[in-house]
Amino acid sequence: MTSPNQHADVVIVGTGHGGAQAAIALRQHGYEGSILMIGRDDAPPYERPPLSKEYLAGEKGFERIMIRPEKFWAEKGIDLKLGAAVTAIDPHAHRLTLSDGSQVAYCKLIWSGGGDPRRLPVPGAVLPQVFYVRDKSDADAMMAALADGPKRVLVVGGGYIGLEAAAVLRKLGCEVVLVEMLPRLLARVAGEEISAFYAAEHRRQGVDVRLNTGIQAVLGEDQGKVTGARLDNGTQVACDMVVVGIGIVPAVGPLIAAGAAGSNGVDVDFCCRTTLDDIYAIGDCAAHANPYADNAVIRLESVQNAHDMANTVAKAIMGHKEPYNALPWFWSNQYDLKLQTAGLNLGYDQTVLRGDPSERKFTLVYLKNGVPIAFDCVGTMRDYVQARKLLESGVGRIDPALLADPQVALKDLI
Ligand code: FAD
Q: Where are the alpha helices (DSSP H) in 29-175?
């Protein structure tokens, strides 16, 4: 057997939110061993949320979305190996194989691989003007395509990524048609009131929102230029480019091939250990029992989750095994609207509207058996801050009439 080219006490796979925070937290907790981060991305660790917001809009340059200044990593003794993918794991030998053929040995491995964008499964989807929004390179490619002026764009998918991209594209002067297969926007993540509000808002901003509509094919010229798309209701849309936001597939191939348990990502326990010795997994790819979802096994795709799981693992490696039990939160920016979510609305059986959507400031409260479990706050920062406290306090049943009254502060209901 050949000896590995490199060794580190902790090897972190993925240089995104989870990976970067794991390295930062280890050093913050006084970890003195060697740390190596390996990432497919060529760029040093950066924030992903701006890729469908300020970065795509050209309002923030790359320096402003870097998780830390470039010199930080060397200063903290954290080695970065960029532009390299881990292709295989030998969990018995504690050894990784990389795409360049080299091998790296580890004592502890933290897998924070995130996900790959789900590809559009239709003819024409491989044309060069079909874009995804996951990595900096995706956003850069889209920005380059828009450099010579506004385009006619078809956005596929009415989830957060598609809607944020649509908002930026409108701001840049593009004509935007957005198709969503389900009967409402944000159907998998938000209540009907939020869906209706955002559909109206996007239409008011000039987006042609088409619900219950899928796509059959991307159409192109012989030279490979996108000219339009055929929708599943038989109609055609003329467009110059297509932007796809239809979810991710967890990037866990090497882990599963190495024998880790998992069907939707990779399974982890209360302190983010996989079923393989000395291998942890965090972030978008980690399926875990979440206390804010009655311990249902779920994956969360949020900065909060990646960040807090990274902290849990850093502590575990330092010998403090504290269960992962952070309150889930999330945000989305579209136009001048800021949506902030606290808690998880999984299994809700009632919603209460607090405030008036026509004023573009309101909160939607999700309840299960009379107990508030989540809050979507649109332009209501105070509600959001107090909702977090309320949920963290382990609240019981609350009279819906009190929740519905914006004059009653949420903190007074704790
Ligand atoms: P990532 O940050 O995706 O990092 C994973 C890294 O691992 C990637 O760099 C990938 O290239 C690398 N990798 C994968 N496999 C391998 C391999 N085999 N070898 C080496 N490297 C590998 N969340 C919010 O809370 N609010 C938002 O507003 C928001 N907006 C978003 C907008 C966009 C456009 C996107 C894409 C995401 C957004 N998210 C948002 C989600 C958030 O960014 C993710 O939940 C978070 O990045 C997850 O962190 P992670 O470490 O699990 O994965």
A: 70-75, 136-146, 160-171
Q: What is the residue with the minimal CA distance to atom 12 of ligand 1?
A: 14
Going by C-alpha positions, the residue among 155, 248, 145 that lies closest to residue 202 is: 155
Sign of the C-alpha dihedral, residues 348, 351, 354, 357?
positive
Please compute the mean of the pLDDT values over residues 246-265 and round it to a whole number. 98
Does 162 sit in the ligand 1 pocket, CB within 6 Å?
no
Residues above pLDDT 90, as percent of the chain: 97
Q: How far is the CA of 78 from the centre of ligand 1 (A)?
A: 20
- pLDDT tens for 93-124 read 999 999 999 999 999 999 999 999 999 999 99
> With a 6 A CB cut-off, is 21 part of the ligand 1 pocket?
no
The DSSP string of 191-253 is -HHHHHHHHHHHHHTT-EEE-S--EEEEEE-TTS-EEEEEETTS-EEE-SEEEE---EEE--H
Question: What pLDDT, in 10s, does the model give residues 152-182?
Answer: 999 999 999 999 999 999 999 999 999 999 9
Coil vs helix vs strand at 46: strand
Summarize pLDDT for 279-301 with one digit per residue, the tens. 999 999 999 999 999 999 999 99
**Residue nearest atom 29 of ligand 1, based on CA coordinates:** 49
Q: Which residues contact 346 (CB under 8 A, 6 or more apart)?
A: 293, 294, 296, 298, 373
pLDDT (average), residues 25-39 = 98
Question: What six digits make up the tokens of 25?
Answer: 């937290």
CB-CB neighbours of 144 under 10 Å: 9
Phi, psi of 171 (to 5 degrees): -60, -35
| Cβ–ligand 1 contact at 170 (below 6 Å) | no
Under 8 Å between Cβ of 251 and 282: no
What pLDDT is stored for residue 2 in this prediction?
Answer: 59
Contacting residues for 148 by C-beta, under 8 A, at least 6 apart: none
Q: Quick check: CB of 332 below 6 Å from ligand 1?
A: yes
For residue 248, how far is its CA from the centre of ligand 1 (angstroms)? 10
User: Is any atom of ligand 1 closer than 6 Å to the C-beta of 351?
Assistant: no
CA 302 to ligand 1 centroid distance, Å: 8
Q: How confident is the model at residue 395 (pLDDT cuts 50, 70, 90)?
A: confident
